[in-house]
Structure formats: structure tokens, C-alpha cells
Amino acid sequence: MSDRQPRTRADAQRTRGSRARTAPRGRGGAGARPSRRKVWVKRGLWSVAGLFLLGVLGFGVAYAMTDIPQPNEMVTAQASIVYYSDGKTELARLSDEGGNRESVKLSEISPNMQHAILAAEDRNFYQNNGISPTGIARAVWVALKGGSATQGGSTITQQYVKNYFLTQDRTISRKVREILISLKIDQQQSKDQILENYLNTIYYGRGAYGIETAAKAYFGTSAKDLTPAQAALLASVVRGPSLYDPTLGEEQKKNAESRSAYILDAMVAQNWLTPAERAKATFPKVLPVRTHQLSGVSGYIVDLVKKELVNKYKLTESDIQRGGLRVTSTIDRAKQKAAAKAVADERPDQPDVHVGLVSIVPGDGAIRALYGGKDFAKRPLNNATQAKMQAGSTFKIFSLIAALQSGDVSTKTRFDGSSPQYFPEFADPNGTTEAARRGRVENYGNEQFGRIDLLRATGHSVNTVFAQVNKIAGPENTMKAAQAAGVRSKLNPNMANVLGTDYVTVLDMANAYATIAAQGVHAEPYLVKQVRFQDSGVPTIDAEPKTQRVFDQPLMTDVIDAMQEPVKPGGTAQYVGQNLGRPAAGKTGTSESYRSAWFDGYVPQLETAVGLYRSDPKTGDELPMENLPKAGDITGGTYPARIWTAYMKAALEGVDVARFPAPAHINEGADPPRPTTQAPPPPPQTSQAPPTTSAPPPTTSAPPPPSPTPTPTPTPSKTNGPPPSPTPTPSITGLQPSPRPS
After folding, report:
1. Which residues does residue 587 pair with via DSSP β-bridges, in sequence order?
2. How far apart are alpha carbons 35 and 562 in whole angstroms?
3. CA-wise closest residue to 610 among 646, 581, 578, 582
4. DSSP string covering 374-399
5. CB crowding 590-624: b at 16 or more within 10 Å, else e
6. Which residues are CB-neighbours of 674 under 8 A, at least 6 positions away?
7. What's the CA gap between 332 and 663, in Å, rounded?
8. Among 4, 470, 494, 583, which is 20 to 30 Å from 396 by CA?
9. pLDDT(696) > 50
10. What per-residue confidence (pLDDT) applies to 5?
């Protein structure tokens, strides 16, 4: 730098400016000023420190003010009750009998069980202070992202506090209380005492609270005698009995085997089990579930209510078993009683014939009555919601809908109703008979109708006419109409679906026909009307019908008009019209070899579907319902129609007679379709007449005799009934259609 002194004021000012620009800005620089950025950083750090201090003080105050509930509050759990739709009359209790806990000392609990639960839930239990900081941080992070406030790993102490000292709500405030109480519990009780209380109060499924009750429920033994394999299984079911009880199904068994192996391996890693002991620990034999509450006809309803609470409202099994819930169902007491009586009075005298019934409110979805079987405890397969059978002629209505939607036909369009007829679209090149290979379709009893309109064809369930209808509609559109109406079982878009080759449940068909009764408004079926909690701070759950218009109203008025034909004199369900005493609409269905029989019908205020099938009590194989010693041939127009009528007469007592809407007569100018059949082929080169039972499955029912004693004489088309085993979702592979009966 130059040592020259400034000679003028301007020189001096320039010199000062130059020095100011070149002066160091570090800490030692003369005249250095703190930057704005550093000021804000310091302020931010002080703010964070202040907030941290306030948080610590707040946590300390909250900790000091939090009281630990008395231990006896853990055993004041109340049974959850299901009421009929009036909200007052008890239908059943959701909590299983045998749910009373039987507490034992930790010294009376097998070390295998103690180690298994620690390996599964909290391996650092004896080292931690009652909480998991990493689990809490994870829960906070999930909550900030919009997830559940209760997510995150919990220690055994936290689980103990959450399930038995607190309510079952899912809020951040409850999570904070859980943490505070867990810290206090860890300070005031020994680890052994906490573990003992936890094992004695946790829910293991099967109505079993506490390890002693669970050991007896699963293995018929005492907690002190549990083997490593048994202990590992019980430590697994704690996560969710419905997911890990191996007796509930193949999926649950796989879950239990995988989880048990994981726990046993963890016990070896923690030196609680030797490798040799681990090698001997094979998956244990488990006792079958002893059902108490879920018995009788109401057992099927209670089972479905439980599933709806878990699947739809995300309540836990602990909530249901000990939460003191007050559940109002949609089941009407008088209607449910009428359903059970109608089945008992009108069913065929044949023990291996099974009956399913569902009654539902059109446009709302509330299930008013449900008959899934005689005794859930003896046969848990629900004939109304799980058993699947071929739909038979009840499926013709979906082809009618699809054909009317096409605009090419109206209900007044006339078709050739002669029998038999041959359709290339129905031909099966691999058929075992000449008739099957040429696509033969015939009417029930080979009845001849000449040219008839769709109204009369629906009333008489004319197979040859509806084969032509499905060619116009298209099998895929028939399938889509069924799905839109509410059929939730898997369907296939084959040409023969019009004759009922698909397997469906009674609930499927009740739901679908209820959509028609509601003039095109579909409603999701439901059984839970309201859920009230013991804790007044938890909001009451009120069900809201979930509805959607899926069909145009004018279209539906024409379909309803056609569906009144079967109950008129000469129709396949004339018994209904003769005995109900009010306007009704519906459709019969009988599958080939009489393996299923249906009547599905409605008045404007109520829809009801009834389905029957027969199965071998030992193997579960489907059996035909023909030439039975005391029942003869079972078709849709006989026992199903009688059960339906007996139920509806009682269910509609005091209900005003309502009229159906007038038909809109859409597509009235549609031209009649051109002939779509082939001339009968020449007889095959054989001395015998060609068989007549191999084309697509027919599905109509002959009308029952007017006398009270049913003596049917029809010929239906193939369907399979489900096995009587307790498989949760049975599905039998049906035989390929053979177009004879209807």
C-alpha cells in the first residue's frame, strides 16, 4: 500500500472508502459488523432452545399431572352387544363365552411363553424404560404425513397400557397419555410385574383373555406346561387372532407357521432356546374352535356383523370382545323370526338340502333378514353369503336388461319360441353328444311356444327365446348388467351365461334384484346400523346408505313389468301370485340336474332371494335334487317359491300395498330380429335318438301344482352347490352347461 498522504478532502474521502472496502470482515477485523444471516441463525438457535425448554417443562408438567388408573380397571371390560334394528331388543352378544380371564403368577407361566412373547414383541423389555423412542418418532412422522396417529413400534409396557388402561380411540392425545403412563408404570412396577399383568390380560382370540385361558382354549393345557412351539404360536396370535389362528383357514395357518418360526429363531438368537430345542419345536396341534355365542340361526348374523365392524369400520377384535360396544343392526326382529319359520315350515324334508335367504330394502341396502343355516356352531358355512350355486334362469333378467339397453328390442318384440333350436354360438366342439356339438337349446319339457314376445317369454322362462336375446345383447353386456346390479361373485362372459352357468351367492342375487326394485338405484348391502362406544368422547358411528344410479328409470319400469309375468297364472312362479295377496315381481331358476333352485322376487318396499342346493354331508360334493323320496324334483317354482311366499306374507303384515310403476315401453318401434336359428341337423348315424342334455344349461322352473303339497315335474340345468365344510369362501367348479331344462 502506498504511504503517500492525501492532499485534498476528496483524496481523503477516497482513501477512507478504499480502506473500508478492503478491511477484513473476520472476527479480528477492525470495525467488523455481524452479518444479518448470523443474526438470524443465532435467533433461530435461541428460539429452538426456548421451544425445547418449554417442551421439556410441558412434558414434565404433563408427566406430573398424569395419574395411573387403578389396576382393577383392567378387568371391568364389558361385553359388546348386538341389538335388532329397534336398538333395544338384544340379538346376541359379540363377546364369546369363556372370555373371563384366569390370572396366574409369572412363576406359573412357562419360561417358554415368557421368552416367546419377548422375542415377538419387545426383546429389550428388561433394558428399556417402558417406551420405544424410535417407535414414537416413527409414529409422529407417520402422523405428520397424514397416517394413523397410533402407528409405530410399541413396547410391551406401551401395549399393556394402551389395551387395558386407556380407551380404544385413535388420537394423538391418547398416544401421549400412553407414553406418559408407560413411563410411570415402568418406574412404579417391576418388570416382572408388568410382564405378568400383560400376559394375564392380553387377548389371544377364541374369547380367551390371559395366558391361562388361552393355553386351555388352544391346547387344553396350563400356562406352566406350554412347550416352545405352543408358546410361539400364542405369541403369534396376539398380533391378530383372525390372521394367525391356524384353524380359520389355509392363509391363517401359513401366517401362523411363518410367524412361529420367526419367533423360535429369535429365541435361539437371544439364547433363550438351544439349536437342538429349536429343531424339535415342530408346529403344534391346535384344538378346534369351541364356538359358544355364535350358534343357531343368529350365529350367521353375528359373524357377519363382526366382519363388518372389522373390515368396514376398522375396529379391532379387542374392541369387539371387551370394548362394551352397543351395535344396532339392520335386522328386523319380526322379519328375522318370519324367515326362520318360513324355512322350517316350507323346506323339503331332506337333511342334505341347504337353504339360504336374504331380505333387503331396495334403494337403501339394509338387510332386514338373513338365513344362513340352522346352526352356525355345527355348520359355519353361510348359505346366504358364502355358498355358491349356479344362478339358473334368474340370470335371464340381466340379458333382458342388456338387450333393452341395446335399443334393438322392446318387451313387445317377438321371437321364435319353438324347441329345440340350434345356435352355432352355443355349440361345444368338445361336447360329448351330438346335441352339444351342434349347440342345441330346448325349453323345459320341450314345450312349444311359436312366436311370442319378451313379456310372455319371461313369464314362461323360454330358453330358446333367451338364447336369441343373448345373441342380441352380447354375453359380455349381460355380465356387465349383472355386475352393475350388484352381483359380486366372479362372472364369465360366455354365451350360455344367459341360462345361468355362473356361480353366485344368495346375497348377490338379492342385491341385484333390489337394484331393479329400486328402479335402477344400487345400494351396497349392510348389517350395522349404528355403533355406540362406552367412552362418550368417541363419536357414535351411524351408517349411511351408499347408493348410485346404475340403470335408467324408464328401462327399469319395463324390466319390472316383464318380471311380473312369472307370478301370473301359467307363469313359472304362479304359486306366488296365487298366495301372496299383493302385486309382486320375480324370477324362478332351476339348474341342470336340479342342483340348484331359486326364487328371487320383490314388492316395491322389500326384496328377498331364496336359494336351495344339496351336498354330500361327508365329501361336500354337489348332489342333484331330483327324485328325492319325500320331495320329488326341486325346482324354483316349488320349495323356493313357497319359502319366499311364506316369509313375505309375514314380513309385509301391516305394510301398505304398493303398486309398481307403469312401463315406459322403451324401444317400442324396434324391428323384430331376423331369424337366428339353424334348422335341426340330420339325425346322427346311430340307431339311438340323439341325447338332449348337452347344450348350454337351461334354467327355468316348471310352475308348482296349485295344491299345498309340492310335486314338481321340471327338468333343470347344471349348477353346483358348495361343500358344507367351514371353508370361508367355497367355490365349486361347475359342470359345463347343457341346454335342456330351465
Report:
1. 600
2. 87
3. 646
4. S-TTT----TTTT--EE-GGGGHHHH
5. bbbbbbbbbbbbbbbebbbbbbbbbbeeeebebbb
6. none
7. 32
8. 583
9. no
10. 47
CB of 626 closer than 8 Å to CB of 633: yes
User: Given phi > 0 = left and psi -120 to 50 = alpha, else beta, which region is 231?
Assistant: alpha
Distant-in-sequence contacts of 259-265, Cβ < 8 A, 24+ apart: 259/120, 259/232, 260/229, 260/232, 260/233, 260/235, 260/236, 261/232, 263/116, 263/119, 263/120, 263/232, 263/235, 263/236, 264/116, 264/228, 264/229, 264/232
Please choose, from the candidates 555, 574, 549, the residue with its C-alpha nearest in 3D space to the C-alpha of residue 564.
Answer: 574
- Using pLDDT thresholds of 50, 70 and 90, give the confidence band for residue 156: confident
Q: What is the DSSP letter of 685?
A: S
Please, what sign has the CA dihedral across residues 503, 506, 508, 510? positive
pLDDT tens, position by position, 225-242: 999 999 999 999 998 898
User: What Rg, from alpha-carbon coordinates, does the chain have?
Assistant: 36
Whether residue 484 contacts residue 502, with contact meaning beta carbons closer than 8 Å, is answered with no
pTM reported for the whole predicted model: 0.66
Question: Catalytic residue positions?
Answer: 121, 393
Which residues sit opposite 82 in a β-bridge? Answer: 92, 327
Compute the mean pLDDT over every residue in the chain, rounded to the nearest whole number: 81
Cβ–Cβ under 8 Å, residues 600 and 662: no
Instruction: Supply 539's cell numbers.
Output: 363419536
Q: CA separation (Å) from 721 to 97, 239, 354, 379, 614?
A: 33, 35, 9, 15, 6
Write out the three cell numbers for 33.
Answer: 459488523
Closest CA to 670 of 293, 352, 314, 411: 411
The DSSP letter of residue 292 is S
C-beta of residue 373 within 8 angstroms of C-beta of residue 297: yes
Q: Are 86 and 200 in contact (CB under 8 A)?
A: no
Identify the pLDDT of residue 570: 94
Q: Which grid cell sits at 317?
A: 377384535
